[in-house]
Amino acid sequence: TKSLVWFRRDLRDFDHAALYHALKDSTQVYCAFVFDTEILDKLTDKADRRVEFIWESLQELKAALLAKGGDLIVLHGNARDEIPKLAKSLGVESIYSNRDYEPAAITRDAYVAKAAGEENIAFHQFKDQVIFEQDEVLSLASKPYSVFTPYKNAHLKKLNDFYLSAYPVDRYSNYFAKPEKSFPDISLESMGFQRTNLKTMKLPTGMSGGATLFNDFTDRIQQYKAARDFPAVKGPSYLSVHLRFGTVSVRHLARTAWQMGGTGAEGWLNELIWRDFYFQILHHNPGVADGRSFKPEYEALPFPNNENLFKAWCDGKTGYPLVDAAMRQLNQTGWMHNRLRMVAASFLVKDLLIDWRWGEQYFAEKLIDFDFSANNGGWQWASSTGCDAQPYFRIFNPISQSEKFDAQGKFIRKYVPELKQCNDKEIHAPWLIPPLRQQALNIEIGHEYTLPIVDHGTQRALALALYKSAK
Ligand code: FAD
């Protein structure tokens, strides 16, 4: 029997649920990836690090499949039509893919399943990108959790070798097949995209890139909890983009941390569980994908939404150095440190009084690791509209966050070089530097670096009133 494995956000040839099942059940397995115009056409910036990351990762995946006697067919078109058409032309009986939990993907997959079904081609889907999906972790009353800690406890209780073991793809690697006809090479340029600064950032792509980062991280995993909050320190794993595109296996990562134990590894496993948590929130509350807030009482908070303030935030020109450094890191690299995502999000909503959905959308455009569920969850957490969110009256102070998490201003100096001559105390609130000292430093606050666009104390009071009005 012949089958087709459709790769999407699982760009690897090992520990891969759909690939394993296809190889086990068939004698000839073809592999394909579609650069989906339904997604790509919506990207206005044609220099997109994600597209380049995928493209690079596919080169490695194709080489790996060729080495096993298979191949990777890469297409550019509307996946809804391309996949059933390809399946038919290859004469396969089944299509195998791993489940994607985003509402738009679910709609697309239902369409593909129907179109394939009309040709008597079966469509099989598997859990692969999370440890537990959908209804696998429920409360004792069989209800989905909306608070993280009990969810995590139930998740950890259920975790065992079975759920974390790898799919032994290589056991059946004799069954890879090559298509008879050849397919044209797809380049970034042929799709209308350009190279970005991905290469100069030295972000390693593909399965080898994911493995390199994870090896590096396991050497320092036990320091994770102590180091993870300081943006100038190499604390986290930097694996989010690899988890996003499946160049690593979440089972492998979780198994390693779970078996290691210790506060660092357990702390990190906790973050992988947050990832599962937000996926199941999306599954049980698909309305969040239509802009709904998780807490209905905060659905229509009357944000003033000043466009000039929003632009200053996007450009990293708010006058609050840590917020500006964070936004510039996002704009220049496509990644932002977790502590800073919280600070920048809180600042947008509770200092600039701008609808969290605006920030969510901006992050969605810029983040190389953009994942709908984690991004929406993070934004709703910061804006106090989400499940298990920060209570509305807890408002990050952008100055004390800066003093605490970037005490020496190392991170700020990297992204806000205008302030590099300020000392470690001055750098967090440069508008307080007396004029004579500004002269001595050869910097004029309000000229080389902007004055704060809002006053934190004033805005804090306004935010509290705004949230109270909705209660
Ligand atoms: P590590 O600290 O090494 O964590 C390991 C992995 O755990 C991450 O790669 C990620 O997959 C997962 N993880 C960590 N924290 C969270 C979290 N809070 N929620 C869900 N999963 C988590 N993460 C994304 O992957 N995509 C997003 O689009 C995204 N948007 C966010 C928006 C906001 C406003 C906030 C506050 C957080 C967001 N996060 C998002 C979560 C988190 O900031 C990133 O996962 C993390 O910074 C990625 O870096 P890392 O891989 O080094 O993380």
Automatic annotation (TrEMBL):
The molecular function terms in GO held by this entry are:
deoxyribodipyrimidine photo-lyase activity; DNA binding; FAD binding
Its top-level enzyme class, in one word, is: lyase
Task: Kindly list the positions annotated as binding FAD.
Answer: 224, 268, 271-278, 369-371
Q: Which PROSITE patterns match?
A: DNA_PHOTOLYASES_1_1 (PS00394), DNA_PHOTOLYASES_1_2 (PS00691), PHR_CRY_ALPHA_BETA (PS51645)
| Cofactor(s) essential for the protein | (6R)-5,10-methylene-5,6,7,8-tetrahydrofolate; FAD
Check the record and name the Pfam families matching this protein.
Answer: DNA_photolyase, FAD_binding_7
Judging by the UniProt lineage, the source's domain of life is Bacteria
Q: Residue ranges of the Photolyase/cryptochrome alpha/beta domain?
A: 1-131
Give the cofactor note text: Binds 1 FAD per subunit.
Q: Which family does it belong to?
A: Belongs to the DNA photolyase family.
What protein am I looking at?
A: Deoxyribodipyrimidine photo-lyase
